[in-house]
Task: structure prediction
Amino acid sequence: MTAPAPEITDLNRPYWDGLAAGELRHLHCETCGHNWLPAREACPNCLASDPVWRPASGCGHVVSWVVYHKAYHDAFADRVPYDVTLVELDEGPRLLTNVVDSDAGRALAVGVPVELKIEREGDLALARFRLARNGGAT
Ligand SMILES: [Zn+2]
Result:
């Protein structure tokens, strides 16, 4: 069984195209400077509707995480235990992801620096993270 696929729309296509090209992109508000993910048309800070896509550095830190010991979808049955981690990028956006070398969450802690590790699953490139090798540049 394959994992459920994201719905790719005209709004979020630059995010997925960016990952396929090897970079993580976030939206940036030209009016107030706010950065965010996931994609939405208006800035969540000032409601301006002139966002542009920008590449992220790929560096961030752990805000929170959980470890799944039970698969709630058959496609994930061979992955347990695995973490679902909230990462905040250095640019500010947060995303739910996995830290692939966290030893099922045991190496995670609030504030631990992580870096982007794009992984392919089928036709999709996914933004996952690994523990930062140099201790983080934040
Ligand atoms: Zn704004």
Helices lie at 13-20. Residues 13-131 form a domain with the OB fold (Dihydrolipoamide Acetyltransferase, E2P) fold (CATH 2.40.50.840).
